[in-house]
Specification:
Ybab, Chain: A; mainly alpha; single chain; rod-shaped
């Protein structure tokens, strides 16, 4: 998904670059790295699992990007009154979600994104936009290279 095939730039060896513009290779490599970083961040966020358990570890929950992924109830937890059990499940699930959010915050900070009021759906949408823009830019670059090749007869 994030692997960007290398462009064949051998036909451009010795072609003068316009003054003040970055080399084509550097531009393509920049886009390749941006796409790879964005895809890596998205994968890391998707793979995270938040966990929590109550004090006696009779109720445990795992939360991932899709929501509650696993709920473990020790048979002794079933002795609680139904209202108490439900309340404890909600509390443990919320703690697992908080753990997931904390992990997400650490990862996005590593990528230089502010974690203040982190909205993972918004970050994911922004990453999708970056990935799409990088792919469009890469395709545009490839089209320009092909047009240049046809104009110079290579």
């Amino acid at each position: 998904m994030t692997d960007v095939p290398p462009f064949d730039l051998s036909s451009f060896q010795g072609v003068a670059q316009p003054t003040g513009s970055p080399p084509v290779e550097a531009t393509i490599e920049h886009h390749r790295q941006s796409l790879s970083r964005s895809g890596g961040l998205r994968r890391q966020l998707q793979d995270l699992v938040g966990t929590a358990a109550n004090d006696d570890e009779r109720i445990a929950a795992e939360v991932n990007a899709s929501g509650l992924a696993k709920l473990t109830l020790d048979p002794r937890a079933m002795r609680l009154a139904s209202e108490d059990l439900a309340e404890e499940i909600v509390r443990v699930t919320a703690a697992a979600k908080a753990d997931l959010d904390a992990q997400r915050g650490e990862i996005v900070r590593e990528f230089g994104i502010s974690a203040t009021d982190l909205d993972v759906d918004q970050v994911s949408a922004q990453l999708n936009e970056v990935i799409a823009a990088t792919r469009r830019d890469g395709a545009d670059m490839q089209a320009l290279i092909e047009r240049f090749r046809s104009q110079v007869g290579r």
